[in-house]
Design brief:
Strand content: 5-15%
Number of strands: 28
Radius of gyration: 41 Å
Shape: elongated
Number of helices: 34
Structural class: alpha/beta
Strand order of the largest sheet: 8-19-20-9-18-17-12-16-13
């Protein structure tokens, strides 16, 4: 669709102005020293005279150098753009700091540039285009490729091989595209050319060069990596998907993500807190996924988690689309996603179980060539596709956390592993680098992670023993060798199928029973109402019958009276007839006697006729009344019959529900209290009793066992396919490799390892061969922290996308000023809806979600969020109360499990009134922090996080702690700890006492404080000037919950007991 393409091209233009920060200065780093050179006559890192040349690196290794030329401050770019396109309000976000460069290239150990490694900054080019021809020109942002060609020609001319450079020409003959040995002055000269060609007017950066050096194997010493760490990671994907969008080649998930405002129907939204019928039916046992994660402690999911899982599997299970979940801190997002993973694995196992023989899983053969070899790839049957799961995030830590937690031994209850369960457990532990319970997830993404995975998962590893003869070498078997060994092993495929079938039957039996109870519960109020209505109707029918009988009695009486009257009239007439005058009397009286008699007889005949008519009428009335009685009796009897049936059904329903309450216990849904007891409702786990929970877990474990049995039975095929995907991960498979072969290779990895993870930054390079909807399930974590354009390529490649995040935690930040975003928006003619500075991936998904609820934001305005997780189980009460009050308007539910006492002082705000500052760094606050850490470190087992809103405070803390050893402490900005947690967090506020702007920025929204507070499970110590911060919104509310102290009170005997 053209509109979607415009949005994507607009976002790409924004990304052009968003360069990556270059490596920080670390000259003493052991493995990757990074040096900065401010003058062109300095000794370069690749010079034999430089100090790193003296480091011992081994005879088979060499140095390789990433050069960043024309280093400039990102704030310089921001200042220019604001001068040219309009100023933004003052910002104190440390993520806007940093440095970037005009171009980068790789230099070999002997100082030769690898031409194919060169990267020109799109931002530098766009910066120049904003100077000339300027934003008003029709071709403002046209022509990057043309200028890059000019730059490449210029570089090749300046760094061309000399005629007498024999070594260089030999390298060229080996198809290694290198130049002559260069100096920093050469790089400065090329930088000056770029500055002049782009009219940048930055002569001061020409000699500013940053060099990151790393040790590589000699065989890779002249290899151009081809990685672009200077420009936005999303440019290529945005261009690709924008082109596909022009022909409407986008899936349902991405189309929903980019849905225009006019297509949004807010009236169709269903609020799960207001319309309780929706969760009631969504939580029906028949809607539960069949698989269940073997959760630690055997705890079931709670109401909101189960609703989200049931709804997303119902909507997306066999379809495509997008589903959002709102996951505030500590609400069990990963716990919920584990159940989704179990569900997907069980669904695939159901297909496996239906196969007549294992080889039926493959439908054909395809070929795929890599740099190493030609691969024969078995292509999967269509019904075994769509089960691939990718976890992605903008937050590298979040991705790592999820894929560490899923296979980690702490992710499951030990009781499930007691019977020798083994889903490649040893291999998983080796791959994870710590004890694991199964090969369930792998962290991929960048090339370093991929290489680590290949080494630990696929390759054999030889480790040195203790020097004795028996332990000279210990061989750790990689999966490739393991698969080779399985080719001669008889598979337990039939036994695994039988186990899965038994587990499936057992689970289905329990599911059906609970579904019957659900139907009974649903039916109960209907039957109670029917019974009540029928009782009323029976009473009414009896009353009607009584009235009919009374009327019939009255009619019978009237009939009897009428019949008596008729009898009397008939008798009188007969008697009168006997007195009829004789002929003689008639003659004697000249007919008068006869006339008189006839007159009287006529009157008597009329009386008889009248009485007869009256009797017939009364008889009809009586008969009709009797029919009415019969009818009333029949109706009464019929209603009584129906009442008896309903009463009997109600008795059965009540007995069923009585059994359900007895068997389910607390898991029986007490829907009568859902409306009035919101807290109990949210903490409940409807229908998920231990017996059914166990059956669902056993089905999942049986599904994994069936997967393993399949792998053993098809070991040769799996090994061939995995060899192909290993080459894909290593970058050895060309872009034009056969699509069916590449997909089959990837699907084989997903079959063995159900979940892989990556950051959005690495997504397009990791899955460069994949296209629209090739990935079955995309799980986006911490989506509130991701700019909307970062998720485009991932969602485009996904058939189903589950997006989890929270708009009330950290928001994404773009280095490009808002005014520049507006200028670009107008250029591309898109609505303000799509301004990335106001959006996150989560907000876009919330916007399109049909189920969710409303919250009030910090300005008391309603915001619509996706399916909410509301039960908090991480922090102790005080931290929860702060977070719930400042960010969630009291909508969260506290359910943190009570823990043993921590021998530390209670959480507190330690007032520090220091006035001396260096920027936002208050040295006196640092000394207080040092005292706190010295006092509490001996009593904490967990790492202590020391965090601040401001980068200069973090710099001051790092310098301070570098000089003072205080135990296991991690220092960083608040932005670095989203997705992390610890028992103890020290929040150091800082801020220049003379400049309130920094404090106003930190208190602009609740997000920053919300994240800081919710990292602390047990203790939160806030260090800062309470007098200055008390005037700031949210921080004043924090003070009303966290006790303010005039100074630090160290642990005393009371706390240590």
């Amino acid at each position: 669709m053209y509109n979607n393409s415009k949005i994507l091209r607009y976002w790409r233009a924004v990304e052009i102005f968003c360069p990556q920060s270059i490596p920080k200065l670390q000259p003493e780093h052991r493995d990757r020293p990074t040096n900065h050179f401010a003058t062109s006559d300095s000794v370069a890192s690749w010079s034999e005279k430089h100090k790193i040349a003296k480091r011992k690196i081994g005879a088979t290794h060499v140095w390789k150098h990433e050069v960043y030329a024309g280093v400039y401050e990102l704030r310089t770019l921001r200042d220019f753009l604001q001068t040219r396109l309009g100023a933004d309000p003052e910002s104190f976000d440390s993520r806007l700091d940093g440095q970037s460069a005009l171009f980068s290239l790789t230099v070999t150990h002997d100082g030769r540039p690898l031409f194919e490694s060169t990267v020109l900054s799109t931002c530098a080019w766009a910066w120049g285009r904003t100077i000339a021809p300027g934003p008003g020109a029709p071709d403002w942002l046209d022509g990057f490729d043309k200028f890059r060609e000019m730059f490449t020609r210029q570089m090749r001319e300046m760094f061309a091989l000399l005629e007498d450079d024999e070594e260089g020409h030999e390298l060229r003959q080996d198809e290694i595209d290198v130049g002559r040995p260069i100096s920093l002055a050469d790089i400065a000269a090329l930088t000056s050319w770029v500055i002049e060609a782009l009219c940048l007017g930055l002569p001061e950066v020409a000699g500013q060069t940053r060099v990151l050096s790393r040790v590589v194997s000699e065989k890779f010493g002249h290899e151009a990596d081809g990685a672009d760490f200077l420009n936005s990671f999303f440019l290529d994907d945005l261009a690709k998907v924008a082109g596909e969008a022009e022909s409407d080649n986008v899936g349902i998930a991405l189309r929903t993500y980019l849905k225009p405002d006019k297509e949004l129907d807010e009236s169709s939204r269903q609020d799960v807190r207001e319309r309780l019928g929706l969760p009631f039916y969504t939580l029906a046992p028949s809607k539960f996924p069949r698989g269940r994660w073997p959760a630690k402690g055997h705890y079931p999911l709670v109401y909101g988690q189960q609703f989200a899982i049931n709804r997303m599997t119902a909507e997306l299970g066999t379809a495509s689309g997008l589903f959002g979940v709102n996951g505030p801190p500590g609400t069990g997002k990963t716990t919920m996603l584990r159940d989704l993973i179990a569900s997907v694995v069980v669904r695939r196992a159901e297909v496996l179980e239906s196969l007549a023989k294992p080889s039926d899983a493959f439908r054909t053969i395809s070929k795929m060539k890599s740099a190493q070899k030609s691969h024969t790839i078995a292509v999967w049957a269509e019904n075994l596709t769509g089960f691939e799961i990718v976890v992605a995030s903008a937050n590298n830590g979040a991705v790592g956390n999820v894929t560490q937690e899923i296979p980690g031994i702490d992710a499951v209850d030990p009781s499930w592993l007691a019977n020798g369960f083994d889903y490649l457990t040893e291999l998983a532990s080796r791959t994870l680098g710590k004890p694991a319970w199964g090969m369930l997830a792998a962290r991929l993404g960048n090339m370093g992670n991929r290489a680590e995975f290949i080494k630990n998962f696929w390759r054999d590893e030889k480790t040195r023993g203790d020097g004795s003869a028996d332990s000279a070498q210990v061989r750790q078997t990689g999966f490739e060798t393991w698969l080779r060994k399985q080719q001669d092993v008889s598979s337990d495929w039939d036994a695994a199928k039988d186990r899965f079938r038994r587990a499936s039957t057992n689970e289905d039996t329990l599911r059906r029973q609970r579904q019957q109870w659900f139907e009974a519960l649903r039916e109960m109020p209907e039957q109670v109402e029917r019974e009540s209505a029928l009782k009323r109707e029976v009473d009414a029918r009896k009353d009607a019958e009584r009235r009919a009988m009374s009327a019939a009695d009255h009619a019978s009486d009237l009939f009897d009276n009428a019949r008596t009257e008729y009898t009397v009239a008939t008798s009188r007439k007969a008697q009168h007839f006997s007195t009829r005058p004789s002929i003689l009397r008639t003659l004697v009286t000249l007919g008068r006697a006869r006339r008189h008699w006839s007159t009287e007889h006529g009157l008597l005949a009329a009386d008889v006729a009248f009485a007869k008519s009256k009797m017939h009428a009364a008889e009809q009335t009586r008969n009709l009344a009797e029919e009415v009685v019969k009818s009333a009796s029949t109706l009464r009897s019929g209603v009584e019959g129906r009442l008896k049936t309903v009463t009997e059904r109600l008795r059965i329903v009540r007995e069923m529900l009585s059994d359900a309450r007895r068997i389910l216990g607390q898991c029986f849904p007490n829907i009568g209290t859902w409306q009035r007891d919101e807290l109990a409702r949210e903490k409940s786990s409807p229908w998920a009793d231990p017996a059914w929970d166990k059956a669902r877990v056993e089905l999942f474990l049986a599904a994994l066992a069936l997967h393993k049995a399949f792998v053993v039975s098809q070991a040769r095929t799996i090994r061939e396919n995995l060899a192909g995907v290993i080459d894909i991960l290593g970058g050895a498979v060309p872009p034009d490799a056969p699509r069916d072969a590449v997909l089959a290779a990837w699907r084989t990895l997903f079959f063995v390892v159900p979940v892989v993870s990556t950051t959005f930054a690495s997504f397009d390079r990791l899955f460069s061969h994949l296209s629209r909807e090739d990935i079955g399930w995309l799980l986006i974590d911490e989506a509130g922290q991701a700019v909307p354009q970062s998720a485009v390529g991932a969602i485009w490649r996904a058939r189903r996308a589950v997006v989890v995040g929270d708009p009330l935690q950290l928001e994404p930040v773009l280095t490009i000023p808002f005014t520049t975003q507006q200028a670009l928006r107008k250029r591309f003619d898109v609505a303000e809806t799509w301004l990335p500075g106001r959006l996150s991936a989560q907000k876009l998904v919330d916007r399109a979600s049909r189920v969710g609820t409303k919250l009030l934001d910090h300005e008391r305005k309603p915001i619509w969020i996706s399916a909410p997780l509301r039960v908090h189980r991480r922090c102790d009460r005080q931290m929860f109360d702060v977070s719930n009050k400042i960010a969630y308007n009291g909508s969260m539910v506290f359910d943190t499990i009570s823990k043993t006492d921590l021998p530390l002082p209670p959480s507190a705000w330690i007032h520090v009134g220091g006035r001396d500052s260096a920027g936002n760094w208050i040295p006196l606050e640092g000394r207080v922090v040092l005292s706190i850490l010295h006092d509490i470190a001996p009593f904490t087992k967990d790492k202590i996080y020391v965090i601040s809103p401001f980068r200069d405070v973090v710099n001051g803390l790092e310098a301070l702690l570098k000089r003072n050893s205080v135990g296991d402490v991690e220092v960083g900005t608040i932005h670095t700890v989203q997705g992390k947690e610890s028992e103890v967090v020290v929040l150091v506020l800082g801020s220049d006492p003379r400049r309130p702007g920094a404090r106003r920025w930190a208190a602009e929204k609740p997000n920053l404080l919300n994240v800081a507070v919710s990292r602390a499970r047990r203790r939160l110590y806030i260090v800062g000037n309470s007098e200055l911060w008390s005037s700031q919104k949210f921080f004043d509310e924090c003070m009303s919950i966290i006790n303010v102290q005039s100074g630090w009170v160290p642990p005393v005997e009371l706390y240590l007991q």
